[in-house]
UniProtKB/TrEMBL annotation:
Methyltransferase type domain mapped to chain residues: 58-154
Top-rank taxon: Bacteria
One GO term (biological process): methylation
Protein name: Class I SAM-dependent methyltransferase
Gene Ontology molecular function, alphabetical: methyltransferase activity
């Protein structure tokens, strides 16, 4: 992982800058969240069900809204994120809301160096695996942090979406479905506030579904299901149309926008 240290440092700096912008954004709707609105979407709520009394590790938690939403539902939560600014805000929100989640700042691949507890549920969602150069150590860490009988759940944007470059409102197919070579992007704004003057500098990697599934299997997990969906809960890609159920679809839908996987540790 040492050869990727510079990439991670650039990404960390970008995410640190995003925190304050995202916390003020309409997308993260902090006022409503503080008033009790959940940040969780129907997919993950349906998949995890009743989490009361369960221990939950949230990987790549940003500034902790999902972690704290699970905490409000009665889970004993720990959130992990690369961004120290994100973790600081998560800790502040946790205190302000009178919740009992814990937050730890570290690279997600190093989680087992910082956390020795095991959990009933390991959870991660929406825009997470693209920041990782190799999913094998990620999957190994997930296996290590699960209790026997516990499960891992991921809801994530479909890898086909990351084959495209989204620049100036145009959508151009540019990257391989399974791209080993790092992808560098530099652009103004963020997904939560495209009018922001902040310059995002980001290194990422594309991982196809077979890579995700096989990494989890190789780590020792049993795949319970893999599902794909045409809808997205977030309006973060060009030309999306809001449906009556509040989710977004493409004008001409030719491929899925999301996938979810549930995997159990025997």
């Amino acid at each position: 992982m040492e050869e990727h240290t510079n990439f991670f440092e650039v990404n960390k700096d970008t995410w640190n800058k995003k925190v304050a912008i995202h916390a003020q954004s309409e997308m993260y709707d902090m006022e409503a969240f503080k008033a009790g609105k959940t940040s969780l979407m129907p997919f993950e709520l349906d998949a995890l069900g009743n989490v009361k009394g369960k221990s939950l590790l949230h990987l790549q938690c940003h500034f902790g809204q999902d972690t704290l939403s699970w905490s409000r539902m009665g889970a004993r939560c720990v959130g992990v994120d690369l961004s120290d600014e994100g973790i600081k805000l998560a800790q502040k929100l946790n205190q302000e809301l009178g919740l009992h989640a814990e937050f730890i700042c570290c690279n997600v691949l190093d989680t087992s160096n910082y956390i020795k507890d095991t959990f009933d549920i390991v959870y991660t969602s929406y825009g997470v695996i693209g920041w990782l150069p190799d999913l094998k150590p990620w999957a190994k860490m997930i296996y290590e942090r699960l209790e026997p009988g516990g499960f891992f759940y991921i809801i994530e944007f479909h890898p086909i979406l990351w084959m495209f470059d989204y620049v100036d409102g145009k959508t151009e197919m540019k990257y391989h479905y399974n791209q080993d070579k790092v992808i560098y992007e530099e652009y103004e704004g963020t997904y939560a506030d495209q009018s922001s003057k902040m310059v995002s500098k980001e290194y990422g990697w594309n991982h196809g579904l077979s890579e995700v599934v096989n990494a989890l299997i190789e780590a020792g997990l049993k795949i319970d299901y893999l599902n794909e969906y045409d809808e997205s809960p977030y309006d973060v890609f060009p030309y999306l149309v809001k449906q009556s159920n509040g989710l977004y679809k493409m004008k001409d839908q030719l491929f899925p926008m999301l996938f979810e996987i549930k995997a159990t540790k025997k």
